[in-house]
Specification:
This protein is mostly beta strands. Helix content is 11%, strand content 35%. It has 1 helix and 9 strands; from the N terminus they run H-E-E-E-E-E-E-E-E-E.
């Protein structure tokens, strides 16, 4: 049909890669991108007496202080997490693996109640009850 010089073939390849994001092996710098763009999600801000199990595998806030008898809501984003409380007197029941939902636990006893997610190493938190 027609002959294309090597110079133009190389130029077309560079333009195509640039338009497709560079073909850099799938790394996005550690951010989860939204379907419509390349910006990271906004930071998660928990409400009063709420702990959020984030998609970044952290509990936010890491330590929450509440009054005795307070109900704390554990909110789970789209990543599966669980909550396993330390085996201490007054600790509430553990929370089974959950995603896209919320589970409440009442803290009826004063003390410090550590917990973790057994699915994600280093994902820990503490509820301090006065």
């Amino acid at each position: 049909m027609f002959a294309m010089s090597r110079k133009y073939v190389g130029l077309i390849a560079v333009v195509t890669l640039a338009a497709c994001g560079g073909g850099g092996g799938g790394s996005d710098g550690g951010y989860t991108t939204s379907p419509g763009g390349g910006t990271p999600p906004p930071p998660v801000t928990p409400g009063a007496n709420e702990v959020i199990a984030t998609t970044s595998n952290v509990f936010t806030p890491g330590t929450l202080t509440v009054s005795k008898g307070t109900s704390v809501t554990f909110t789970f984003q789209n990543t599966a997490h669980n909550v396993n409380f330390a085996n201490v007197a007054g600790a509430p029941a553990n929370i089974a693996t959950t995603s896209n939902g919320a589970v409440q636990r009442v803290f009826a006893t004063s003390g410090s109640f550590g917990y973790d997610c057994s699915l994600h190493s280093g994902m820990t938190g503490t509820i301090i009850v006065n």
